[in-house]
Write a structure and sequence with these properties.
Blueprint lengths: L1 H9 L3 H10 L12 E2 L6 E12 L5 H14 L5 E5 L10 H9 L4 E4 L2 E2 L2 H7 L3 E3 L1 E2 L8 E4 L5 E3 L2 E3 L4 E5 L2 E5 L4 H23 L4 H8 L3
Parallel strand pairs: 2-3, 3-4, 4-6, 5-7
Antiparallel strand pairs: 1-6, 2-8, 2-11, 9-10, 11-12
Helix pairs in contact: 2-6, 6-7
């Protein structure tokens, strides 16, 4: 069921999902516009695996390695890892970690923070949405924690099991219990959009097309 929903959602796009969710009276489901994909023309969709972290310049490098490799080992296949690092200083993703997550079947990584080794990650083809790039590392400075606990990015609360759709326009978060209905309605909306497009390309007046299909 989760895999099937992920595949269907990946055939949608964030703008259409946004309009459907807004039509349902939902709000606070779009992540900050500063989160951008490293790889253009990339779409990821699937359930979130959430965690956060904190900076602590007094921690031992061993503690960072132990906690971070624990995340890499435990993130569930088929999920999108989503991190609130509570830090705007260092990179919270790098090439070896991206390669490990890709090998383990993680769909992508969304972080309200930084990334490094960006050229390598692009060549690897692992989808990452982040705020910035920096060579600064987490070792001896930052620790991940609270795996599976809810987090807040911008004004959006994200829980493990909620669904994300991310593309070039940004990232939307769908509450877990609303995913089947939102996906089904988005598919229907996209179908009507295609009818409008086809009608206009065949010469129909745009206003007439809107009035005919009640979509634009």
């Amino acid at each position: 069921m989760v895999e099937h929903l992920s595949e269907r959602l990946a055939r949608c796009y964030t703008a259409a999902v946004h309009d459907v969710m807004r039509g349902h009276g939902l709000s606070d489901f779009v992540l900050p516009v500063e989160l951008r994909p490293l790889l253009p023309d990339t779409i990821i969709a699937g359930p979130a695996f959430t965690f956060q972290g904190h900076a602590d310049p007094t921690i031992a490098p061993h503690d960072t390695y132990l906690a971070w490799t624990g995340f890499l080992a435990d993130a569930p296949a088929g999920a999108i890892a989503v991190c609130q690092p509570n830090d705007r200083t260092v990179a919270h993703m790098g090439e070896l970690s991206a390669e490990t997550l890709k090998l383990r079947g993680i769909r992508g990584y969304v972080v309200d923070g930084g990334c490094r080794d960006t050229a390598f990650i692009r060549r690897l083809g692992f989808p990452v949405w982040c705020r910035y790039a920096t060579p600064s590392d987490i070792v001896g400075f930052w620790l991940p924690q609270d795996f599976g606990e809810s987090i807040v990015i911008g004004n959006v609360r994200i829980r493990t099991g909620d669904f994300l759709l991310a593309d070039d326009d940004g990232v939307v978060v769908i509450p877990q219990g609303r995913v089947p209905d939102i996906v089904a309605e988005t598919e229907e909306v996209m179908g009507r959009e295609n009818l409008v497009r086809r009608a206009i390309l065949n010469g129909m007046n745009p206003r007439e097309a809107y009035l005919t299909y009640r979509k634009f």
